[in-house]
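Technical annex, item 7. During the second reporting period the consortium partners agreed on a shared format for inverse folding records so that results from different sites could be compared directly. Each record opens with the tokenized structure and is followed by the designed sequence. A conforming record, contributed by the partner at site C, is shown below for reference.
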């Protein structure tokens, strides 16, 4: 987001950028607060938040007068609810101040709004920007990358990019797409780009050692014929430029994530800029990619769990393999994505946002945030009953579903 801010506000003397990670000591936070106050800042924006800036907010409260004209803008990522206790610790400091909680998607804004007394009125929606200019479609680059990867000109290519994780349902993708690659699309390839992770689902009390999820992937592959296994490829972690090349070479991006932090989908935005259509779960921030022609697999919360309709998914994958977009369609999709996810587009959104004075003075966090903290256990488990209809999980995450 820093690039979008620099594009929007440039080298204006009324704007200053400060480095802040959220992990600073109290003395460092106080020193930074004094620098900010000396600059005379009236609007303070946290451009990327993984850790709530509670310590710095307390420090700012100590150096600014209680009646000082001061507004806060917070760009949130998907872990807002996992940091509930830290946000609650900042409640008294923020009360009475103009605050805006900026979310990268409409469903995430709805999700965050339920934890605020003022609801969605205290939120705003603005996607994260993609800054690198090489995320764009090029027919010549597509041909070059297909040659480089040994992919035939008309072979359907599916790609997933991100963590190879239980949270992202990568093994399910292999199990659903693999039979189609066996019987109908005998030249199709699946590229699984990214590192293997060992996170499991800690908020449900389910830990997966590194080797255990790798074993799950291997078992999914072992169910396929040997020739199909060779067409499921693991390129590993790529540079950003190489990832753009793979997106050009592919025909369809697939993400079956049901991760509780799925507030947006940066890989989906990057792929869209490359003119790459997507098949996604109808979950969380994925929903907003309908604007760039994303197709959704039916996703439901049932008493059996959070599920993807595999029959529906298979039909969607088969349709994509049979109807790839041509170069003109890819270029047109890329142009639409530029109007939403480029630095220029997001900078324009920032200017519009900052022209509107924060209309809501923060009244506090809702009782739901306190319930969430109450359910949190020392080992990190929050949703002990799992992601099921009728469980506490539904109370928190129903806003992530259609």
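Designed sequence (site C submission):
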């Amino acid at each position: 987001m820093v690039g979008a801010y620099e594009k929007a506000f440039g080298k204006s003397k009324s704007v200053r950028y400060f480095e802040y990670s959220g992990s600073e000591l109290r003395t460092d936070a106080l020193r930074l607060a004094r620098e900010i106050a000396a600059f005379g800042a009236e609007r303070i924006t946290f451009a990327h938040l993984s850790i709530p800036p509670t310590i710095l907010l307390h420090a700012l409260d100590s150096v600014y007068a209680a009646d000082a004209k001061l507004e806060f803008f917070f760009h949130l990522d998907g872990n807002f609810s996992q940091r509930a206790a830290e946000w609650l610790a900042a409640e008294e400091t923020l009360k009475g101040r103009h605050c805006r909680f900026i979310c990268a998607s409409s469903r995430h804004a709805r999700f965050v709004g339920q934890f605020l007394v003022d609801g969605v009125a205290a939120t705003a929606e603005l996607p994260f920007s993609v800054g690198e200019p090489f995320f764009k479609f090029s027919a010549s680059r597509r041909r070059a990358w297909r040659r480089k990867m040994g992919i035939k000109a008309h072979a359907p290519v599916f790609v997933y990019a991100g963590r190879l994780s239980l949270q992202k349902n990568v093994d399910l993708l292999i199990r659903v797409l693999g039979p189609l690659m066996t019987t109908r699309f005998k030249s199709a390839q699946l590229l699984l780009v990214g590192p293997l992770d060992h996170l499991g689902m800690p908020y449900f009390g389910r830990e997966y050692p590194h080797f255990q999820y790798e074993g799950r992937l291997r078992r999914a592959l072992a169910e396929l014929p040997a020739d199909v296994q060779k067409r499921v490829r693991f390129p590993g972690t790529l540079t950003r430029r190489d990832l753009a090349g793979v997106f050009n070479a592919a025909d369809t991006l697939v993400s079956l994530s049901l991760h509780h932090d799925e507030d947006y989908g940066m890989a989906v935005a990057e792929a869209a800029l490359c003119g790459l259509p997507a098949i996604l779960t109808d979950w969380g921030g994925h929903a907003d990619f309908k604007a760039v022609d994303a197709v959704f697999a039916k996703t439901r919360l049932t008493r059996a769990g959070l599920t993807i309709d595999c029959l529906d998914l298979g039909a969607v994958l088969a349709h994509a393999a049979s109807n790839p977009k041509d170069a003109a369609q890819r270029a047109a999709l890329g142009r639409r994505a530029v109007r939403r996810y480029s630095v220029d587009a997001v900078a324009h959104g920032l200017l519009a946002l900052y022209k509107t004075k924060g209309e809501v003075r923060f009244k506090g966090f809702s009782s739901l945030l306190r319930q969430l903290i109450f359910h949190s256990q020392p080992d990190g488990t929050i949703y002990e009953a799992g992601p099921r209809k009728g469980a506490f999980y539904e109370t928190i995450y129903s806003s992530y579903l259609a």
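The chain is about 40% helix and 15% strand. The mean pLDDT is 92. All partners now use this format for quarterly exchanges.
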